[in-house]
Protein 1
Amino acid sequence: MRQDGAPTLEIALRHRLGAFDLDLAFASDAGVTALFGPSGSGKTTVVDAIAGLVRPQAGLVRIGGETLTDTEAGVLVPPHRRRIGLVFQDARLFPHLSVRTNLLFGRWFAPRSAPRVALEPVVALLGIEHLLKRRPRGLSGGERQRVAIGRALLSAPRLLVMDEPLASLDDARKQEILPYLERLRDEARVPIVYVSHSRSEVARLAGTVVLLREGRIVGRGTPREILARGEASETAPARSAARARRLGRWSPGQALNTTRPASERS
Amino acid sequence: MRQDGAPTLEIALRHRLGAFDLDLAFASDAGVTALFGPSGSGKTTVVDAIAGLVRPQAGLVRIGGETLTDTEAGVLVPPHRRRIGLVFQDARLFPHLSVRTNLLFGRWFAPRSAPRVALEPVVALLGIEHLLKRRPRGLSGGERQRVAIGRALLSAPRLLVMDEPLASLDDARKQEILPYLERLRDEARVPIVYVSHSRSEVARLAGTVVLLREGRIVGRGTPREILARGEASETAPARSAARARRLGRWSPGQALNTTRPASERS
Amino acid sequence: MGDADMGWLALSPQEWDAVRLSLLVSFWATIASLPLGIAVAWLLARVSFPGKALVNGLVHLPLVLPPVVTGYVLLLLFGRRGPIGAFLAETFGIVLAFRWTGAALACAVMGFPLMVRAIRLAIEAVDPKLEAAAGTLGAGRIATFLVVTLPLVLPGIIAGMILSFAKAMGEFGATITFVSNIPGQTQTLPSAIYTFTQVPGGEAGALRLTLVSVAIAFGALLVSELLARRAQARVGIA
Amino acid sequence: MGDADMGWLALSPQEWDAVRLSLLVSFWATIASLPLGIAVAWLLARVSFPGKALVNGLVHLPLVLPPVVTGYVLLLLFGRRGPIGAFLAETFGIVLAFRWTGAALACAVMGFPLMVRAIRLAIEAVDPKLEAAAGTLGAGRIATFLVVTLPLVLPGIIAGMILSFAKAMGEFGATITFVSNIPGQTQTLPSAIYTFTQVPGGEAGALRLTLVSVAIAFGALLVSELLARRAQARVGIA
Amino acid sequence: PAARAQDAVVFAAASLKNALDDAAALFRERTGRRIAISYAGSPALARQIEQGAPADLFVSASIEWMDHLSAAGLIRDESRIDLLGNRIALVAPAASDVAIAVAPGFDLAGALGPDGRLAMAETTAVPAGIYGRAALEHLGVWESVADRVAQSENVRAALALVSRGEVPLGIVYTTDATADEKVRVVALFPEETHPPIVYPAALTRESESAAAADFLAFLRTPEARPLLERQGFAVLGE
Ligand SMILES: Nc1ncnc2c1ncn2[C@@H]1O[C@H](COP(=O)(O)OP(=O)(O)OP(=O)(O)O)[C@@H](O)[C@H]1O
Ligand SMILES: Nc1ncnc2c1ncn2[C@@H]1O[C@H](COP(=O)(O)OP(=O)(O)OP(=O)(O)O)[C@@H](O)[C@H]1O
Ligand SMILES: [Mg+2]
Ligand SMILES: [Mg+2]
C-alpha cells in the first residue's frame, strides 16, 4: 500500500473533549517528528488518535500512504492492525505478566513477516536484565518506563510513538537510550513520533518539530527554528471561553493540503 | 516535641525488597534535601518510609526532633498523623472527586492549628483554574501532576516530600513553580525532600544533595560538590549478586552517628 | 385464561397485601443488612484475623444450607423460645416470630452471602495506593474508608443491594419456615405463589403473582443498573 | 444421639450416593455454566446492545422466582414432553429430565445470577487502558480478552465459581421439582435432607447430612480463597 | 449412576418416608427386587408424572392430585386403591396443661390466649391444612381463629412450631404428633368433621414394571401392615 512520494505521516484531526478543542493537521517525512508543547496542549490526544485508541470526530491518519483513519470515508483500522508501537505516558504494563512476558507480548501477535527484534540487546540497553522475572508490581517509576519502552521496541512496529518516554529516567540512562533511538531512525528507518518536554532530547532527535498549544499548531519546522521561538517556552494561558467554531464541512484532505489518490476516494 | 539543635530530618533505614537492599542513614537541616540517583536506586522507597507508608525492617525517621518511626522502640506513627505532604511519583488523584475536592482533601483533615494555605494562589500558580470542576479522569499527564502538587501544598504539611514532581511538565511551567518552592523554603520555612533526575532543578533548590545508588548513599553534600562528580552521571550496573550482609545488631542511632536524647530512650 | 379476558390478571385484596408485604420485606432486608454487609465485606477483603475462614464460612452458610434448614435454625435462635429471640423480646420488646420483621430477617440472612461477596469483590478492586494517599493527607483509617474506599466501591454496593433485593423477592423456604404464612402479616409473594402451585389448576394464580414479582424485580434491576452506571462513570478509572 | 455414641454420624449407602451425586452435580453445574457465565458477564459489562436489559433480567430471574417456579419452568421446557427437552432427546439423545444431568442444569440455572454478577463486577474493574495497550501490541479483541482481561478477572471468576458451587450444594427447590428425588439418580444432599425433615425422627439424619454438606462447602470455600489469594497477589494492582 | 439399579420407581408423598422405606426394605428381603422411592410433595410429583416422569407407582397424600392425574389419563384407574388413612389432632407443647374438648363451637380462640397462634399447614394448599380447616369450619370455630392461623409449608413445620413452644396449639396428623415427645395430643378431631384423610396409590399409565404392581400388592399384605401401622397410619381395608 506504500505510496512512494507520499509523506510518511499525514495527520488531520478535529476532536472535542469537554472544553478542549483539538484542531490540527500536519504531515511529515521519515525520521523523528517531535510533538512539543505545554502540558494539556493535546499531545497525548494526537498520539491516541494515531494509534487508533481515539476515534476523532473528524480526521485522517495516514502512514506511508496507507489510510488508517478517515472519518469521511468511514475508515477506522483497529489498533491491533496498525502495528504502531506505543510507549504510553503512564507505562500501562500488564500487571499479571512477568516483565519478560510484558516485553515479548507484542511478538506473540506480530505478523510472521514482521522483522524480529532480539530481546537481549534491548534488555541490555535499558538495563533491565535483573527485572525480567519480576512482575510490574513493585517496579520503580523509571523501571516501568524502561520496560514500556522495551515492550514497544520489541513489537517490531512500523511506526514508533513515544509519549514522554524518558521523563522519569536519569540523565545517564537517557544518554544511553538516545543513541539507540538515533540508530533506529537512521539505520532501521523506523519513523518515530516523539512527545517530550525536553528541548535537548527534541533538538537531538527530531527532524521536524510540531509545536502545539491548546489543541492548535502554532509552529512547525526544524528544532532550530522552533525551539528558539518564544512560543515554545510560554505556558498556555487559562483556556479562553468555549470557542464557537463548529465541526462542519471541514475536510481533512483540505486541511492537510494534500490530495488523496483517486484509488482511495472510493 | 521540637528539639532545638536537632537536625530537621534524621533518617536511618534498612529495608530489603526482593533483591533490592536499602541501607542508608543521613541527616539534614532545614531547606531542601534532594534525593538524587539513578532509576531504581531507592528514592521512592525512602520517600515511602518517611511518610510512614512503608514499615522499614529496621530504621528511624525523625522530623524536627520528633520520632515518627523507630523500629527499635516500636514507634510507627501512622501516615495520617505525620502531616507530611507527599507528591507521589504517580499522582494518585482520587478518581471520584473533582479536582477542586482533590485539592482541598487535606484541609478536611488538617488540625485546626495548622496554617491554612489559600486555594486561589496555588491554583493560579499551577494553571489549573479551568480544571477545578473536572474529575481526574481525562486530565493530561502534566495536569494530573500539577493537581497532585497542589493537593500536597494545600494540606499545609510540616514537611513536603516531592517525588519527581515536575517530570512531566514543560519548561515554562517549571520556571513558574520553582520560584514558588524557593519561597516556600525561604519564607514559609517548610522543609522539603525533593526527588528529581533534573540537575538544574536540584542545583537551584537543594541545600543538601544525597546521592543514592543501589540502596546506598554514595555521596552527600551541596549540589555543587555532588553533581560535578562522575558518580552522579553513571548508571547503576546490573545489580551484583545478593549481598550476604544481614540485618543484625545494627542500630539506627549508631548508623546516624547521632545520640538520641535520653528522654526518648525510655 | 382467555385471550381477550384479562380478568385473571386482577389481584385480590389479599394478593395486594402480599405484594405490599414483599416490597416492605425486601426493602428492609436489603437496607438493614447493608451496614453489616459492608463491614463484613471489608473485614474479609482487607483484614487478616484469626477465625477469618470461619466467618467467611458462616457468611456463606445460608447459600449452602437448604432454605428450610436455615429457616429452622432461625426459628431455634430467634423464635420466642430461642435464646436470641427471648433476649430481644425481653430487653427491647422486639419480636420477630410471626412478624414481617422476621420475614425481613430471613430474607436478609438468605441474601447476605450475595451482598457480601459483591461488596467484597469491589473492595478488593480498590487500589490500596489511593487509600495510602488519603493517609498522607491526614485521613485516618475510618475517614479513608468513608471518603475514599466507600465511594469507589459504590458500584459493588449497588450490585450487592440488587442481589439481596432480588433474592428477598424470591425467598420462600426460610421465610415460611421461620415466620409461617399469615396473610397480611407474613405472607410474601413467594409464599402466595407457593400456595397456588400446591393445588391442581393453580397455575393461573401462580403465573399472575409471578408476573407481578418479576415486574417489580425488573424495575429494581433497571434502577440499579442506572445508578451503577452513574457511579461507574463517576469513579471510572481514569 | 448419645454423647459418646457417634454411630448416628455414619452414612448409609444411599446417603453416600447422595453425597457423591451432590458433588458430581455441583461440580458440573459450576464447570458447565462457567463459559456461558463469562460470556454473559462480559456482554453485560462491556457491550451495549439492544435488549441488554432483558438479558440482564433473564439472568436474574432464577434469583427472583421462587425455586419451585424455576423448577416447574425447567420441567415444562426440558421435560421429556417439553419443547427443548423433546428436541434435545430426539436430536442429540440428551435427556435431562429425571437424570443427574437435569439436577446439574437446575443447579447451574439457580447459581447463574451469582456467577455472572461476580465475574461481571471483576470485568468492570479491569482498566480498559490495559486492554487498549494490548491492542496497540497487536492483540485483537478476542486475544486481548483471553490474554489480558481474563487473567485479571481470575479472582472474580473464582468467586463466581464458589458461589455457584455453594448454591448447588444447597439447591433444593428447583432440583426436586424438576428431576424429583430418586435415590442414586437425582437425590442430592439437600433433597435427602428435605426428605428427613418430613418425617418424625428424621432430625438426626437431617443434621448428619447437613454437617456433611457444610463440611464439603467449607472445604471448597477454603480452596477457593487460597486460589483467589494467589490470583490476587499475582494480579495485584502494582 | 449408569444403569438403573432398581426394579421400580415409586413417587410418594414425603410424609410416607418412614413407612415406605421400611416396607421397601422388607420387600427387597422377600423378593430381591429393589424399589427406589422418590419422596417429595404430592403436587411436585404429580406434575412430574404429567411431564413423563419415570414413575411406576404414585402414592399421594392428596386425593385431589390423584384425581387430577386420573382425569388426565396418566394412571391406571383399575390399580388405584386407598392405601392408608390418617387422623388429624389438636396438639400442644408437652409442657402445656391446656385441656380442651373438640366439639362444635369449642373455645379455640380462648385456648390460644390473647396473642397465641394456631399452627397449621397451609389451609388452602397442603392436605393437612385443608382437612384441619374443614374440621374447624364444620365445628363452627374457623371464623374465630382464621386470622390467628400461622400456616406452614408442610405439617412438619407446623409441628415444629408447637414442639418449640412457639405456639400454644396446632393441628397436625396424628402420625406426626405421636412421634414427637415434645408434643402432646390434646384431642383428636372426629372423622366426620372433615373429608376422609386418605393416601391413594395407583400404578402409572406408562409403567411396565411388574415389581411396582407387586410392591403395591405387598403393601396390602399382613406382613407389611405392621410396618405401616407402626408409623401411626391406618391401613385401609380391601
Ligand atoms: N474527557 C475529557 N473531557 C474534557 N477534557 C479532556 C478530556 N480528555 C482530555 N481532556 C483535555 O484535553 C487536553 C489535552 O490532553 P492531552 O492528554 O492530549 O494533553 P498533553 O498535551 O498530552 O499534556 P501533558 O503534557 O500534560 O501530557 C487536556 O487539557 C485535557 O484536560
Ligand atoms: N516488592 C519488591 N520486590 C522486589 N524489588 C522491589 C520491590 N519493590 C521495589 N523493589 C525494587 O526496589 C528498587 C527501588 O525502588 P524505588 O521505587 O525506590 O526506586 P527509585 O529510586 O524511586 O527509582 P525511579 O527513579 O525509577 O522512580 C527498585 O529496583 C525496585 O525494583
Ligand atoms: Mg500527555
Ligand atoms: Mg521513584
Protein 2
Amino acid sequence: MTDWLGLPALASAHGGQIDSLIGWTHVFMLILFVGWGGFFVYCLIRFRRSRHQAANYTGVKSHASNYSEIGVAVVEGILLFGFAIPIWAARVDRMPPAHEALVVQVTGEQFAWNVHYPGPDGVFGRTDIKLLDLQTNPLGLDRSDPAAKDDVTTLNQLYLPVNKPVIVRLKSKDVIHSFGVPEFRVKQDAIPGLTIPIWFVPTVTTAEMRTRTGKAEFQYEIACAQLCGLGHARMRGFVTVQTAEEFQKWLDERVKEASEPDPFR
Amino acid sequence: MTSDHAADMTGDHAADIDRHVRVYITVFVALMVLTIVTVAVSYLDLPIAMAVTVALLVATIKGSLVACYFMHLISEKKLIYAVLILTAVFFVALLALPAVTHSNGYWIPE
Amino acid sequence: MDIPYTVEVRRDTGLTNGKIGIWLFLASEVMLFGALFASYILIRTGAPSWPRGDTILNVPLATFNTIVLILSSVTMVMAWASLMRRRFGTFRLYMGATILLGFVFLVVKYFEYSHKFHDGLYPSTNNFLAIYFTLTGLHMLHVAGGMAVNAYFWGPGAKLWKTNPVWFTNRVENSGLFWHFVDLVWIFLFPTLYLL
Amino acid sequence: MSEPAAVVAHKAHVAHEAHHEELGFWRKYVFSVDHKVIGIQYAITGLLFLLFGFSLMMLMRWQLAYPGAALPLLGTLLGEARMPGGSMLPDFYNELGAMHGTIMVFLGVVPLAVGGFGNFVLPLQIGAPDMAFPRLNMASYWFFFLGGVTMLASFFVPGGAAQGGWTSYTPLANLAGTGQTMWLVGMIFLITSSLLGAVNFITTTIQLRAKGLTFMRFPFFVWAQFVTAFLLLLAFPPLEAAAVLQLMDRLAGTSFFLPSGLVVSGQVLTVAGGGNPLLWQHLFWFLAHPEVYVLILPGMGIVAEIIANNTRKPLWGYRSMVYSLVFLGFMSFIVWAHHMFMTGMGTAMAAFFQTTTMIISIPSVVILTALIISLWGGSIRFNTPMLFALGFLPMFGIGGLTGLPLGLNVADIPLHDTYYVIGHFHYVVAPGTIFALFAGVYYWFPKATGRKMNETLGKIHFFGSLVCMNVIFMPMFLMGMAGVSRRLFDGGAAYDFAQPVLHLNVVSSWGAWILAIFQIPFIFNFFWSIWKGEKTDANPWHATTIEWAAPSPPPHGNFLVAPEAHRGPYEYSVPGAAKDFSPQYEA
Ligand code: HEA
Ligand code: HEA
Ligand code: CUA
Ligand SMILES: [Cu+2]
C-alpha cells in the first residue's frame, strides 16, 4: 500500500505503522497541493488581464476557505493524536523487559560501530577507557572482570535473531553519530555521555531478503545519519538477521573464542 | 512620565524631581539591607532548596526595585511594558530549556 | 535632514526613539543572559556534585562589589536627576562618581581573577569555574561598555547640554537605563555564583 | 496623479540639497547613513554572497554526481590540499557544505531580505525620512561586512573553514580546527549586526509612521519586516550565548559541551568534562527555528505586495493574514526541538513539540490560502515580478507541505537527516524565498534606479529558474525516502540501498549547473538596466503604497512634503474611483 513512497523494503515489526503514517500524510499533502494548485491555476487562466479587464474589488465572498483551513487543522490533529503520538509512546515507553529481548550495546566512534554482546550471563562486562586500545580492545573491555569473560565484541557486524525483540543500547565514544537502519525504520542519535536504548523486532532474515529482492549479496546496512567528520560517508555497518538457531550457533562460537585463553592477551 | 519631564522641564517639575530623589534614597537603603540579608542567610547553611528559594526571592525583590524605581518602570509607557512582557514570555521558555533536557529523555545518563 | 522624535516624544506612543531603542536592546540582553543562566542551570543540575560558591570564591569582596555597583546605580540616577533640575555641575559630580565606582568594581574583579589564577584555578579547571568566569567576564565587558558611554557623556558628549539640554538629558537617561541593567544582572549573578 | 508633484518636489529638493549638504564620495556611497544607500549596499553584498554560496554548491554537486572523479581544470586550481589531482577530499566537501549553509542563510538571504529590502523599502513605505538611528544602521552594515570577511577568510586558515555543518553540532565542532573559531567569531559579528538592525527596524516602524498610517493600514511587507525584527531581536541572543560558550570551550579549555570520558581516535580527551552536547543543540535551534521564519516572512511580504499590485485588487483577508503572521512569529519560539526528535526525547516532550509544530503550520496555510484567493476576481498582469511572486506560491507549498511529515516525529524517524529534509527546506528557501527576493528586485528596481529591468530577459530568467529548481530538488525527496543520508561527501555511493537512486544525483547536479546559466540573463539585466534600462516615473506599476509617492530614485530625506496615509494599503479598483488604483498617500 505504501510502495509508491519508494521507502526501502520493510523488515521490522513496528515499521508498518510508520510507513502507513508517512503514506497517509503524503496522501493528505497531495490532496492539499492538488486542491490549492487547481484553484490557483484556474484563477491564473480565468482572471488573466486579456480575458478579465477590470478587477473586482471584493473578490471571493464565500467562507469556503475557512472550512478548508479548519479541515486541514482537523486532519493534522488526527494524524498527530491518532497516530504519531501513540506510536512514539509505544517506541519509547513500552520497551520490552530485558529478559524477553536480546540486549546489545552499540558504541559509535569515528568511524565505526562497536558491537558488544553480554554473552550467556546477560551481564555486560566492565569497560574502562584506560584499557582502551584501537586495535585489540576498542571498547576498553576489562577481561579480568568475571562478567566480561563471556562478552562478545565485533566491529561493524551486528548479528540478530529474527522475530525476537532487540534492545540496542546506543553509546558514542567521541562525537554524535546516528544509528540508522533504513529497512528497520529505526534511527537514533548516539550521543557521547548518554546511553540511549532503542528497540525493534526484525521480521525478515537476511537470507529471505536476498531471495525477495533477488540480490544475492543483499545486506542490511547501518548508515550513520549524523555528520561526524570526514569519514561520515564511510561509517557503514552491517546487520545480519538469522533464524534463532543460526544466531545461537554463531553466538556460542564467538563466546568460545572470547573465553579461550588467548596467548596474546 | 520621565520622558515627559525631558520633553519640558518647567519649574513645577523640579518639585516632583525632589520627590524622586527621596525615593531613590529609600530604595538605595532597601537594597543595602537586602544585600546584607542574602549574605547573612548564606551563612546559615540552609538546605540547598531552601537557600535557592530565599536567594532568588531576595534577588528578585532587589531586581524589581532597581527596575521599577531607578529604571522608572513603575511609571512607563504601555509600549515598553508590551515589549518587556513579550520578552518575559520567551525568557521563561528559555529557562524551561534545562528542564526539557533533563526531565524528559529516554536515555540512561552515566 | 533630521529624524523626528529624537528629542520630543511622539504623541501616540509618548516616547522618544532613543527610549524605545534602548529598551529593545535591553530586551535582547535579557535573552542573552537568560540563555547563559539556562546553560548554568542545565550544567549544574546535570552534574553529580557542585561546589558551593563560597567554598571557592571570596564572598566579602563580592559583597563589597555588590554595594559598589548599587551605589553607582544611585549616583547614575542622581546624575540624571541633577540634569532634570538643570544643575550641570552636580551632574558632572555624580556622573564622575558613577564612572569611578564602575572602575572600583573592575579593579576588585581584577584582584579576584588574578588571585584565582594564582591559585591555579582556571576556567578549564571545572565547570563551576567555567561558568563563573564566563558569566562574570561577560558582565565585566558590559560594565566597561557602560563606563565608556558614561565617560563620553561626562566629557565630549556634554557639549550637547549647551545646544540641546532636553536631548542631552534623554541620552543620559538612556545610558542610565543600560547602567542599571548591568547592576540588575549583577544582583542575580552575585547570589547564584557566590552564595549557592 | 502623483508624478508631477513628486517630480517638482524632486527638482526643488535637489536645488536645496545643493546649497546645504554636499557629501563627498566616501560619506555618500561607502560610509553613508542614508537608509537607501545602506539598503543597496546590503542588497548587492547579499546577492554576491548568494552567488558565492551557489558556486560552492556547484562544486559540491560535481562531487555528488561523480564521486571521486577529477573536476576538469577548476579542480586543480583549488590546490592539492583541497582537491588533490582535481578530486575532492571529504574535509573540503564538509567545508563547502557548512559554508554553503552558513553563507546562504546568514550572509545571503537575511542581508538581502532584511538588510536590503527592509532598509530600502520599509522607511519609504511608512513615509519616513530615514531610519530612526541612521548611524546605528551604518554600524549594522559594517558589522555584517566584518562577519562576511571573517567567514571568507576562514577558508584560508590552516585546516580550512568550519566543517561541522551550518549547525556546528558539538562535540564535533569543539574538536574542529581554527576555521571553527573563525566561524564563531564571524557569527558573533553577524548577530551583533542583526540585533542593531532589529532595534532600528522596530523603533522606526513604531515611531516614524506617517500621519494616518495606523498599524492596520500597514502594507503586509511592513508587518512582515516588523515581526521578523522581533524574531531577530529575541532569538539571536541565545545563539550569541552559545557561540560564546563554544569559544570558551575552544579557547579557554572549558567543557560546556564536552561530557566526561571522551575518547577521540584512541586518545582520552584531557578536559574537565561534565558538559552536555544537547545544550548546544537547544541553544542553536532556539535561534535557528525562528531564523527559518526570518528567511520566509520578508519573502511573503514581498509576494503579498506584488500580488495585490498585479491583480489590481485588495489582498483577500488582509486582517487574518496579519493575525496569522503575528501568531506565526510567536509560535516560532516554541517549536525548536522538532529538529532534535532523534536525540532521544521522551513521550511528553515529543508530544509537545509535535503539537506546536502542527499548530504553527496552520497560520502558514492561512496566509498562503489568502494569497491564492486574492487572485480570484483580479485582472492579472503577468510581468516579471508577478511571475516570480506566483512561482513562489506552489514552490513554498511543496516545501511547507513536506514539512508536515517531518513534524510528526514517528514519520521523521526514516526521514530525519536524509535528503528529504534537504528537499523540504530548499523548496521553501530556494524556489521559495529566493524567488520572492528576485520578485522584489524586479519590483523595486525602478524605485531604486529610476529605470525598469528588461522584461524579456526577466521572463527567460523566471521560466529557466523555475524548471531547474524543480529538477534540482524534486529528486531529493525520492533519495530521502530511499534513506540516503545528507552530508555524505560521495552522495551515498558507499551504500547498497542507495544504488537505485544514485543516478538522481546526476540529475540534480545538471539542474544546478543549468540553473547557474539561467542566472546570467539576470546578472546582465541587473547591471545593464542600472544605466540603460527603460526610464520610469515615480510610480511605474501604478501602485498604492507610500514608497511610490517619492521620486525615483528618492533623494536624501526621501519625501520633501511629509506624506500622509488616507486609506488602507491596497485600495485597487475601488468601485467608482477615477483610476484603478487609489494610493494611500492621495487625499
Ligand atoms: C524558510 C524556511 C523554512 C520554513 C518556512 C519551514 C517550514 C516548516 N518546517 Fe522546516 N526546515 C527548514 C526551513 C524551513 N522550514 C530548514 C532550513 C530545515 C533544516 C535545518 C537543518 O537541519 O539543516 C528544516 C527542517 C525541518 C524539520 C526537521 C527535520 C529533521 O531534521 O528531521 C522539521 C520537523 O518538524 C520542519 C518542519 C517544518 C514545518 C512543519 C514547517 C511549516 O511552517 C510549513 C507550513 C506550510 C505549509 C503547510 C504549506 C501550506 C501551503 C499550501 C497548502 C498552499 C499550497 C499552494 C499551492 C499548491 C499553490 N522543518
Ligand atoms: C537560504 C538558504 C539556502 C539556499 C538559498 C540554498 C540554495 C541551494 N542549495 Fe542549499 N543548503 C542550505 C541553505 C540554502 N541552500 C543549508 C542550510 C544547507 C545545509 C548545510 C549543512 O549540511 O550544514 C544546504 C545544503 C545543501 C545541499 C546538501 C549538501 C549535503 O547535505 O551534503 C545541497 C545539495 O544539493 C544544496 C543545494 C543547493 C542548491 C542547488 C541551491 C540553489 O537553489 C542555489 C540557488 C542560488 C541562486 C539562484 C543564486 C542567485 C543569486 C544570483 C544569481 C546573484 C546575482 C548577483 C548579482 C546580481 C550581483 N544545499
Ligand atoms: Cu558517524 Cu556520521
Ligand atoms: Cu524548524
